[in-house]
Amino acid sequence: MDKWQHVREINAGEQLADDRLAAARARVLARLDAPASSPRARKLQRPVWLVAGALVTAAAVTATAIVVAQHDDPAPEIEALPVVTPSPTPIAPTPTPSSTSGATAVQEPFPGTTPAPGQYLRNTCRTETLNYRDAYIRVFTWPELGEYAPISAALMASNLVEFLPADPTQDRIMRWGPHNERLSAYGPWDPASGQPLGDVVAWDNLAPFDPEVFEESWPAPRSEDGPLWSNVPRDPAGLIEFYGRFGPEPTLTPEEINEQVQMSLVSVLNGNSAPADLRAGVLEALMMVTPAASQVVEAGAITFQFSFAQGYWPRSESVTVDLATGWVRESAVRYDRGDRADEDPVPSDVPDIWRTCNVEIVDGVW
């Protein structure tokens, strides 16, 4: 069974029942409250794909001439998710006896995931992105589809390693590459062989594989009042209210605000850089604000699925979070094809963006 078909069969045509949602939520909160028995980095394997994560990152495509087109066709309509009034039920940290005073202390969520002074979080991510080309040798992703239909597509992978210092005011180290590793090519097809007809050579010329790795130092991101995340609430109800205030227009409908909150919370998780208490609050806030979204708890992780009508392009997204660490294992995006689906040479079970990540604590940049 392909990954996209598996997604369609999860809770197809129905919302989660209250008792099932409550049971899933209880299991998640129990995992968040429980200390990790042996925190360690996990080597990821690609599981069943679920329509995913809030990022709109694209593989770097090197081409002599790449034209960004404006899409004039009306965007497909997506029914907004129902608005739910959140009730504040913050995660309760587990009190533990102090070794010195005998008093109780609040245990941080996701123990073993916060680097000590001098250490770094090493976030290793691999992103697979669908790129298309038309007869005019224009390379683009699906949201940039213009007047002319694509004649072929290529699935390409790029790599990024981030070193995030324990001190949030210090610079981050970023390593980019290799880029444009071609994983698959799609159409036009040779009826006799069933293989792409000449497009492998075309993609080698348009977006050649780049084995180089480039390292850059980036200034530490900041919020308005100080280091990143310093002004963001930690309790779930506060997070929902906080991200609901950042709409660009004061006339947003409740459904649009609800979707905006969802996108913001998913974005926090996808960065794999938020502190442990914020990750715990975001997970619970997602369960409060999206009861109609699919929530699948299995293999020590929870997967959230969404349909977004706002933002870059109407799309389906999912994000899978490790319950022992609060880090995102994988995320994916599938843009809506609307009435131009028959122009797409790529099977519908292939996501436009598929990202897998592994986070670990290291003693230095290496």
List keywords for this structure.
19% helix; 26% strand; transmembrane; 6 helices; 366 residues; disordered N terminus; alpha+beta; transmembrane helix
User: Are there runs of 5+ residues with pLDDT below 50, and where?
Assistant: 1-17, 35-105
Mean of all residue-level pLDDT scores: 76
- Note the overall shape: globular
Q: Note the main sheet.
A: 11 strands, antiparallel
Helix content range: 10-25%
Number of helices: 6
Distance between the termini: 40 Å
Radius of gyration: 22 Å
The structure class reads: alpha+beta
DSSP, total strands: 15
What is the helix/strand order?
HHEEEEEEEHEEEHHHEEEEE
Strand-residue fraction?
25-35%
How many domains, in number, for the residues? Answer: 1
Write the layout of secondary structure elements.
Layout: H1 3-9, H2 18-33, E1 95-97, E2 104-106, E3 120-133, E4 139-140, E5 152-165, E6 172-176, E7 181-186, H3 199-206, E8 214-218, E9 222-223, E10 226-227, H4 236-244, H5 254-270, H6 276-289, E11 295-298, E12 301-308, E13 315-322, E14 328-335, E15 353-362
Antiparallel strand pairs: 1-2, 3-4, 3-5, 3-15, 5-6, 5-7, 6-8, 9-10, 11-12, 12-13, 13-14, 14-15
Helix pairs in contact: 4-5, 4-6, 5-6
Transmembrane segments: 48-69
Keywords: Membrane, Transmembrane, Transmembrane helix
